[in-house]
Every structure is written in C-alpha cells, then in structure tokens.
Amino acid sequence: MSYDRDDGGLEQAGDFDDEARVRKGRALAGTAVLLIAAPVALLLATGAEHPAEHAWPPPVEAPAELASSPTVARSAGKRTVVVLLFDGLAPAMVEGAETPTLDRLAREGAWTDAMVPPFPSVSLIGGFTISTGCWPERHGIVTNRFFDPGKGFYDHSKDDDWVVECEQLHEIAERQGVRAATLGWYGEVSASHGKRARIVEWAASWDEYPSDAGRAEQVAQLLALPVEERPQLILAYFKGPDGAAHFLGVDAPETRAAVEEADRAVGRVVDALEKNGLAGETTLIVTTDHGMVPIHHLVNLDYILRDLDIEARMLATGTTGFVYLDDPTKRDEAIARLSAYAEVFDVFPTDAQPEWSHLGNGPRVGDLIVSAKPGYAIEDRGQWPWYFRWLAWTGPAVYDASASLRASHGYPPGTAPVNGVLYAWGDGVRPGEKVEEVRAIDVHPTVAALLGIAPGEPVDGVVARGLLADDA
User: Fold this and answer.
1) Which residues span the domain enclosing 224?
2) Distance, CA of 254 to CA of 457 (rounded, Å)
3) pTM for the whole structure
C-alpha cells in the first residue's frame, strides 16, 4: 500500500488510486481511535515524514530515447513473447469470477495457481524479481519503501537506476538484438540513461496509467505493427484487482468486477494475436506480482517503537517493516522489547534471516525486519493521509482494520494466499498442463529461453520446463 508522490517523479503508487486514497481516509475517520482530537502542535511535529538526510532522489523527467542497440533482421518465423502482469491477481479471485479467457489459457496451455513471489510479497519487489530473474539481495529492490544511505528514500519507483547488479528482461533483449516494448514496466526508464527499451509507454504519475482495457489496446496496437516495426518482446503492467481487494475485500463484488475486466483485457490481446495471424508464433504469459490475504488488524509500528523506547526510524509496506536503529549495538535489546508483540509479528535481525528471505544484509534492509502474522498488516505514518499521522505518537499499537483495510500482502512465501497465478499459452507451451509451482525468479530465464537468447548476468532462476513443450 502506498500513496503517490507529488513531485512529478516516476510512477509511485503500485497499489491503489486516488479514489481508494479518499476511501481510506474516510474509513480511518470512522474508527473510534480517530475520534481523538490531536493538538495542533503534534500535527506540526509530524510534518517531517522522512529525515533530511534521506531526501528524494531526482525524479525521472521525460526520458531520453534508448541508446544505440544491436539490430538483427527479424524473420517472420521468430517467436514473439508477450508478458502481461496484473497487480494482485490471486488464485481465489480467479476462482470466484467469470474468466472465460483465463479458463481457455489453462485448457489450451500450461498454468499454475502457485506463482511464488519473493519476500516481502509486495508489488515493486515482485515486479523487479520477475523482470530480472534475481532475488532481491541481488537486484536491490528489497521492498516498496526503503532507505539507501547513498541514494536516499525509495518509494515505489520503477527507475532502473535503483537496481544494483541484475539485468531486466528488456535490457537483455535489446542487448542481443531483440526489439522490446515496455508498458508501465519495471526498470523501463532510468534517470541517468533514459529509456531502456526501443518502445516505452512511460507515465510520469499513477494517474496517467491507463485502465486495464486501455493497456490491452496499447498491446493490441503493437501487435498490429508491420513485422519490421513490431517488437518481439512486449512487457506490460496492468493495475489489476489489487486496489479493490485491499479496501473492499478479496470476495467483494468490485474485486470480482476487476478480475473480470482483467480477463477481458487478456481476451483483447488474444484476439489481436489471432486477427494478426500471430497466435502460432507467439507465447503469451499472464501472471501477477503477488496474491492477497484477508486481514483483521493493523499494527502501528511507529507508535510501538516509541512506546518501547526504541530509538529508530522505520518504513513499512503491506505486512513487513524495516527498522533502522539509531544505535545498531542495541539490536538485541530492541528484539527483546519487541517480543512483547510475538503474537502479532515476528522479528529477526538482517544478519540472521530465514532461508526463504533472500533480502541480503545490506543497508537498505536496515537492522531489523518485522514480519506480521497472517491477519495483521503494518502501517507507517508515511502511508497515512497527513492529517492522521499523529497516531504514530498517540497510538493505539494494534487496532481493528475492518473500517479501513480488508486485505493485504507481504507475508513470507509459505503463506499460501500470497501466491499468484501464471498462465502460459501459445507457441512453445505444453498444452493442458498444470504445474505445481513457478517462482517469480523463473520467469526471466523462461522468457529468455522462449526468445532463444541468453538470460541476464547474474540470474538466480531457472527455466520453468514444466510450462514448455519438449521442442521449445
């Protein structure tokens, strides 16, 4: 969950739109805790959301064109790969909706209801993991919001300059002479180098992102281009049902409607492939960045740290918080104090993470990782409307979420509802196959294999052979 930046920078709100923001503010106002009147002085004290030493990095302005890239003459027989990523498309949502196109993809192609995201299972870390094929410890996008001692404050940015050492799908394609197109995709632009693909549908703010139907039309237009202009790799981000599920619930009629809109968007792309005679030479992959889990309580970690006299800064996204201690030598003491909330969240130091974490122990992760138990989500004041940030000082520590939030994500990969869906259909795909699971890191090498090019360096994933035909 997050709010848009208002500085004109790159897209900053992976999880909900302005309408949802207003809805959240009104809902928070309806809870009993928000009936407490806050002193004006306290409101003013909360105005500095982030420490001065962690200023915003320069925003991405209108990006420059891609620098020269190898050009390889394309023959009509070369396979095209189209990847459509819908934010927050959980298996349970698909099961509860009318999805004739997704049903067709499952019937004629290969699919899984266990697309396993990285930890934390939130939007930006998931998208960059899919695009790079690397764990977060390598690509460096460790959550949706974090501090970097050199670059400053990261908040939902898709700027490729934040990536540490891995290569995006569109980068490896362009480097090897494959024309790529990105539509709202991760790392598609760079503040320092401009566009990272030959065709980029870039938006400066979340408000400029199209509806799912509008995005599908953009993909269809690319597929209608002459062969000498048409991209061989298309990577497209869709808003999906994420926002509706967060604020109205996984089973809400609005969430069902969003899933069915997503299905129609996929149908529009399939229709474009068939009408342009491309279905026999194209692989279509439809997937998501994470699933969704119903919640019942919100954790006010800002207040908890103050109440326990733990001197630290913190940032939280979904169900995970990073704690940056003022004095790291007091780490064990902080863990002991936070154990008072053992029924609500787990705490582990960054140098002793569980095997499934894959976050690394660099400075972006902080000193402590707080991971909420299922049913709980973690808020920090930077994600609240400014007029509610005084709650970080007054509490309560844990409060009922029913008036403000119905579902969230970010839990460890063992929490089944955070898994997403993945469908593969078309050329090179094994027909009628349900695969036990596909990890987010496996999408990149699988797409590279379908294109007949080498994956990025480094890469942690492997080709998901269970999805592919024997001769692919």
Assistant:
1) 80-293+413-467
2) 41
3) 0.88
